[in-house]
Every structure is written in structure tokens, then in C-alpha cells.
Amino acid sequence: MADATSWYDIFRRFRDAVPEGEELRHRALIWAFGYDLVSPSETERLDREGSVFGAMFEFAEGRVPPRLADVPKEDVDAWVDAFDAITDPRVRSRLGDLLWSLKAQPDPHLKARAACESLVELSDTDEWGPMEATEGLVRALNISREVGDDPLTARVVERAIELIDVELERNDRPGIVFTLLRSLCGLRPAQRPAELLSLVQRAAVTYGSDSHNLESAIELEAVLTPSAEDRRALRVRQAELWRDTAREAEGILRASFLEKALDIARTHGLADLARALRVEIQSLTEADLDLKAISTDVEIDRETVERFHAAFVQFDGWQASLSAFGAHGPPGGEPEGLERQVEQLMTDHPVQYLMSKVVFDPDFDAPIFRALDDESHKIAAVAQSRWMASQFWALSAVAVLERFANRYGKPSHEDLTEFFTSTLIDAGMADRVALAFELWWDDRPDESAHLLVPRIEAALRNLAREIGLPIIREPYGGKPGGVRPLGELLHQLRGRFGSPGWHAYLLHLLVDPLGLNLRNVIAHGVRARIARTDAALLLHAAAFLRLLEVQNQPPE
Predict the structure, then answer these.
(1) Per-residue model confidence as pLDDT tens digits over 279-334
(2) Is the peptide bond before 65 cis (omega within 30 degrees of 0)?
(3) What is the DSSP string of 407-446?
(4) Residue 63 Cα to chain centre, angstroms
(5) Which of 101, 178, 417, 515 lies at a C-alpha separation of 20 to 30 Å from 521?
(6) Contact 481/474 with Cβ under 8 angstroms?
(7) Which residues contact residue 484 at a Cβ distance below 8 angstroms, ignoring those fewer than 6 apart?
(8) Cα separation of 372 and 379, whole Å?
(9) β-bridge partners, 395
(10) Is 538:518 a contact under the CB 8 Å cutoff?
């Protein structure tokens, strides 16, 4: 025990002192110091462990030590014996806590009190590590509350205040101060020390040059402030803190800090400030973000590409060629296959998915999605993979449409109109679709796309109506009805296409903010001109919709 500085230090000393072949005999004490305290924020680990004690070491083939509930009775008995025999606070604090957590007889509450007192004693031991001492005091506070011993709680609080005061004078270890302050703020109001608010305010002054530390102090002050008006003022101060931090930052950090300020304003109902922050975020340009382009080259055999493009114009008549064009796809494939590819990519290259990722709107340069965990990283990666597949197909779609005109000439307007008149596209709509093809061939892709998008939307509304989905919202109370949004209709059309991939692709192409989103881009007027490749994708979608037949069967 002499001069040990941490639980791991004790664990290592016990482990190394055991004679070879006697590990089983001495494992109880080795295990006791092989646990670490699980943070209250680690809810998943707490659930998995079933206690506040987790294994210090976990391997594919096992763990050291075992879960607390799995420790054999003979080892628990050894803990009881050692607790009774040894007075060193390092032993009594750890063993007393373990036995209290297990409610081991006899008198587990006495062991809890002894553990609590020993943790307080350790916090005033020079050799003991400062973070070990801090976490020990937090644990002592929780134990005293669990046993309902108010005088003991007051003793722990007193020691925590002493340590906070010392650390504030040192002015170099904010983590210790804020860890203890958070624990004290979690007490019932009647148990909180009278000087707690002044300590929080001292911490704000002492460590306030760092925005993260100042925010921590503001958060704690808000907990201690009873007045709703004063709490609102603190939240305004908190949001403005990150707004000011953003103004001093450069590149993507500036956008990140503004997003943080906006999140605070939204969370706490600061509507006017939230509106101002949105305007500020939307005013950021690509140059402001200081983004760097990263590119790579992929070599594709020219003969393979030529054969692929030529396959679309190998027919005797142009009608068969346009039908083959519409039938190709969906770009990106089926959702299940695309997800498997992404999951494999995340397994093979995990590092790029460990850090948070921000997706920016390509037209506004504003953040629209944050990938923070495995699930959100997967969503972003699937969207990106389908986006890349769509871009590759867009280049081919342009080449196919150009070959089509060279091979067959441009069909007459009347013939194109007749060709596109189908189950979902009536003659009036087909007339506009035909004109959209003609505009594209005349090198007017922007006009083509603007003419085509509302007709694609109308065709999808016809599909929804034909299979019995409501496309109109009924008036309700004093609110008028109206047309249901396309995104809502498309989500309700899930399972109605012969291929789930086509449903996923149309969502991506038309209304998904993480996708090409062309319907919204065009309808909201956010892009000055629509590119030839994007317009070609819309022509392809129209050619696909022409092929659909309605069968009134329930979705899968």
C-alpha cells in the first residue's frame, strides 16, 4: 500500500507480488483493485456491468476482473476478511464500496460508511493521484446519499469545498474543480453548501478564458438559479459566448461554433437569437469555411464504357432505345446491398468514422447533418454512396442522350408526346415532357429541368392516387386543407415499387436533403442554373415513370 498513487498502481503491485502458481489463491485482492468506476454518463456500460464498477481490462476472449455480480462467494468472503483486518484507507475504501454494492452481509451499510470516510481521507493524502482523489470524493458523496446519512454527506461536501478552494488558487486544473462542482450541484437544494454559487462564479472568472470552461460554469449557474428570467439571461449569455467564439475562429470551426450557439438558442426557446444565428450561418460562404478539395482518380477502360453506352442505341427504333434508357437502374442499387457495402467499408476503414462529420448543403454552404455515432455515420455514408453512383450515371446519361440524337435523330414533338403518354403521364403532361427532351437536346438544360420537375411530381401524385393513397389534406377545424408534400407522398410509396431501389433513388433524386434533392433545389429557386448532368437525370426519371403500370396490390 505504501505510496500507491492509484487503483491501477495497487492492482499492478498485487498482481506482480503473487508467486507463480498461486494466482487462484490471491485473485480476490487482485480483482478488487482491477475495477474502475464507470461514469454516470456511460449509461450503456452501466447497464452492461450492472453496477458502478467496470472491468479495467476487456479482451475478445474475456475480461479482468469479472462482473461484480459474477464474483464467487469465496472471493467475496475474502474481501470481507481483508476489510476487517486492514485499516489502510486504500483497502477499506475499495473493499467497503464493493461489499456495499453487493450488499454483502453482515452490515453492508457499515461498510458503505467506512468506504465513504476512507475516500474522504484519501482525498487528503499527498501520494494519492489528484483525479483519483476527485473521483473518490464524487463516489463518497453518492455513497453517503445512498445510505441516507446526512451528517456524512455534509462531511464529504465540506472536504469537496476545501479541495475546490485549493484548486481555484492553483488555477491550473479546471477538470478537478468542475467535476466536484457538478457533483455538488446534483445535491438536493437543502444539502447544497451556501457558498456553492459563489464557487461556480469564481470558477467562471478563474477559467473563463477558455470557452468550454466558461460554458461549464454557466451551465452550473443555471442549475442553481431559481428565477426563470435569470436562467433565460444565462442561456443568452451561453449562446452569445459561442457566437463570439465563432467570430474569432476561422474555417469550419466558425460554422461549428455558430451551430453550437444555434442549438443552445433552439433548446432554450430563444427564438429571436435563433433567427439571427440562422442568418449568420447562412451568410457563410465556401471561402469562409476554408475547405480543401480532396480528389482521386479512378481509371475505367474506355472500350468498356463505349460498349455500355452503345448498348442503349443498338435497337432498330428510337422508342426501344428510350425505353431501355428509362429501365436502366436504379443508380446506387438496392438499399440492402448498398447498406452492406457501407457496413463493410466502415469495418475495413473504421478511423474515418470515429470523428464527427458535418454535411454541408452544396447550395447554401450551411451544415444540414451531423454524423456523431455509428448510425448517423451510416446514414451519411449511404447517402454519399448513392450520390456518387448518381453522378457516375449522370455522365453516362448525357452520353446516351447524345448518342441517341446522333443515331436516330430528334423525334418529332408529336411522336415524343405520344410515346410518353402512359398510365401515369397524361397527354398534357406528355407534351411538356417531350418539350423538356427537346430543350435538353438544344443545349438548354436549365429550362428542360424546370419544365420537367413539376411533371415528374404530378406523375408521382397520379401513382399515389391510383393505388389509393390520399394526395390532399382535408381541412381540419379552422385550418384549410391542401396538397400533401411530395416528400410525404414518396415516403408513403415505400414498398409500392417493384424494386425498393427505385423508391430509394427517387427519394434521393427529388427530395432528400442529403441527396441530389433536385425537386426542392428547383422549386425553391436556390440554384442559378441546373447543370446538364442533373437535367439528364430528370429525363431518365421521366423515362422510368413512363414504364410503370399500376397493380392494386398491398405493399410488402
Answers:
(1) 888 888 777 877 777 888 888 899 999 999 999 999 999 999 999 999 999 999 99
(2) yes
(3) HH-PPPHHHHHHHH--SSS-HHHHHHHHHHHHHHHTT-HH
(4) 29
(5) 417
(6) yes
(7) 470, 471, 472, 473
(8) 11
(9) none
(10) yes
Contact 540/326 with Cβ under 8 angstroms? yes
| Spatial separation of the C-alpha atoms in residues 552 and 178, rounded to whole Å | 63
pLDDT average, residue stretch 154-176: 96
Tally of CB atoms within 10 A around 211: 18
Inter-residue contact 426 to 466 (CB < 8 Å): no
Distance (Å, rounded) from C-alpha 523 to C-alpha 526? 8
CA 31, CA 37: separation in Å to the nearest integer? 14
Q: What is the pTM of this model?
A: 0.68
* Residues linked to residue 357 through DSSP beta bridges, in sequence order: 371
pLDDT interval class at 482 (50, 70, 90):
confident
Residue 292's identity, in one-letter code, is K
Q: What is the mean pLDDT of residues 353-370?
A: 76
Closest of 358, 356, 360, 383 to residue 372, by C-alpha: 356
Q: How far is CA 323 from CA 125, 313, 315, 449, 533, in A?
A: 82, 11, 10, 20, 19
pLDDT above 60: residue 553: no
* SS3 per-residue string spanning 368-417: EEEECCHHHHHHHHHHHHHHHHHHHHHHHHHHHHHHHHHHHCCCCHHHHH
Is the separation of the CB atoms in 157 and 193 below 8 Å?
A: yes
Q: Are 345 and 381 in contact (CB under 8 A)?
A: yes
Taking residue 206's Cβ as centre, other Cβ atoms within 10 Å add up to 18
Pick the more confident residue, 357 or 544: 544
C-alpha cell read off for 204:
467562471
Write the CB contacts of 372 (distance below 8 Å, at least 6 apart in sequence): 356
Does the pLDDT at position 364 exceed 90? no
Q: Which element (helix H / strand E) includes 472?
A: strand 472-473
% pLDDT > 70, the chain = 99
103 phi, psi to nearest 5 deg: 55, 45
- The string of pLDDT tens digits covering residues 32-61 is 999 999 987 788 888 889 999 999 888 877
Residue 474's pLDDT is what? 78
Q: Is the dihedral of CA 136, 137, 142, 144 positive or negative?
A: positive
Residue 348 has pLDDT above 70, yes or no: yes
Q: Are 422 and 541 in contact (CB under 8 A)?
A: no
Using alpha carbons, select from 471, 456, 475, 466 the residue that is nearest to residue 534: 456
| Three-class DSSP category at 192 | coil
Q: Is 546 exposed, middle or buried (0-12, 13-18, 19+ CB in 10 A)?
A: buried
Q: 377 exposed, middle or buried (CB, 10 Å; 0-12, 13-18, 19+)?
A: buried
